[in-house]
Write a structure and sequence with these properties.
Number of domains: 2
Structural class: alpha+beta
Largest sheet: 6 strands, antiparallel
Distance between the termini: 121 Å
CATH topology of the largest domain: Transferase(Phosphotransferase), domain 1
CATH superfamily of the largest domain: Transferase(Phosphotransferase) domain 1
CATH class of the largest domain: Mainly Alpha
CATH architecture of the largest domain: Orthogonal Bundle
Strand order of the largest sheet: 1-2-3-4-6-5
Radius of gyration: 28 Å
């Protein structure tokens, strides 16, 4: 070192100065952007999440959202297809629901979106898109006063969407909580109408596959009852199958659906039986923190008697619940008409005055 030529010392000093300058500039860049987390790459390139976020047509005011969600709308001028999107009114497992406006007919519609391109790719995306439109077409042929009408289906900006009847009111989920349960006669009348709506759909070859309180809308002011999301469950289930998830909403699944066997309309009636149990008691017939244990309960354990939670309920109603929750489809209600008839018979029985003593 002591014998190093003067030129060598000058070169060493210049290298040190250059390294200091580069480090100082890098520090300024970090200060401008804020602190970096240990896992975050030090780069100005856009992240994969931002690049993969599906966008809505004509939505310059939308902002990036976390991975797995869609852009939040900030303007009433955003559109999807021919529909104006006013505001988000709900969110499902694969997309959002917007209150929209159809300019051709001049009416409010609900627009349900599904980001198929985010969940599928390649030939799976083509299959999911074909299934989406096929299921939407089948659901669009359902014309029943207690089933939400589907008007249109399309795809734009990476989003598949369904335009459907906008229903005022709320779903039944809030009435599954203790302290907010509906009167028993209202529960019986509501589910009798749902059973008849399902019976009609089954005669048209459409099985819902995801009957639950969140998929039944009620409007207390008008008395309207609407079953929603026909045609949606099979698309969601296809995504869950691909990712190794269990089909449907687990607590409402029939034993045959849980086992992955072929299902028919009787699986919807089992789910309706779970709904009936929950709306009467505020609890589910089967509940567990473990998916494996829940699956074992649904497959093997007999359903509890609804009167263990509400002893004042009549035996006839407990029998309806038990028959709907039969594990073997061939023993269960054969169709929704039978179940609706029994529910209304129980309602009539409960409306009778008690017999006079003596």
């Amino acid at each position: 070192m002591m014998g190093m030529p003067l030129g060598g010392w000058i070169a060493l000093v210049l290298v040190g100065v250059a390294a200091f300058a580069l480090g100082w500039r890098a520090g300024l860049r970090r200060a401008d952007r804020g602190p970096l987390s240990p896992a975050a790459p030090e780069t100005d390139a856009p992240t994969a999440t931002t690049a993969a976020t599906p966008s809505l047509a004509a939505a310059p005011a939308s902002v990036d959202s976390p991975e797995g969600t869609e852009p939040m709308l900030r303007t009433e001028r955003a559109t999807l297809g021919r529909y104006r999107l006013d505001r988000q009114i709900g969110r499902g497992s694969m997309g959002a629901v917007y209150l929209g406006h159809d300019p051709q007919i001049g009416r409010a519609v609900a627009i349900k979106t599904m980001a198929l391109s985010r969940e599928f790719e390649g030939h799976e995306l083509a299959e999911a898109r074909a299934r989406f439109f096929r299921e939407a077409e089948m659901a669009g042929r359902l014309h029943h006063p207690d089933i939400v009408a589907i008007f249109d289906a399309g795809e734009e900006g990476g989003l598949a969407f369904i335009a459907m009847e906008y229903v005022k009111g709320h779903d039944l989920l809030r009435h599954t909580l203790p302290g907010k349960l509906l009167p028993v006669p209202v529960v019986l009348d509501t589910l009798a109408r749902v059973a008849l709506a399902l019976a009609y759909a089954h005669t048209q070859g459409v099985v819902h596959r995801d009957i639950k309180p969140a998929n039944v809308m009620i409007d207390p002011d008008s008395g309207a009852i609407k079953v929603t999301d026909f045609g949606i469950a099979s698309i969601t289930n296809a995504c869950r199958t691909r990712t190794g998830m269990v089909l449907g909403t687990p607590s409402f699944m029939s034993p045959e659906q849980m086992a992955g066997r072929r299902v028919d309309g009787r699986t919807d009636l089992y789910s309706l039986g779970v709904m009936l149990f929950q709306l009467l008691t505020g609890a589910l017939p089967y509940a567990s923190g473990s998916m494996a244990q829940l699956m074992n309960q649904i497959a093997n354990e007999p359903a509890p008697d609804v009167r263990t939670l509400r002893p004042e309920l009549p035996e006839a109603l407990a029998n309806v619940v038990a028959l709907a929750l039969e594990k073997r489809p061939e023993v269960r209600y054969a169709d929704g008409v039978q179940m609706a008839t029994d529910l209304r018979a129980v309602a009539a029985l409960m409306a009778l005055p008690p017999p006079a003593l003596g």
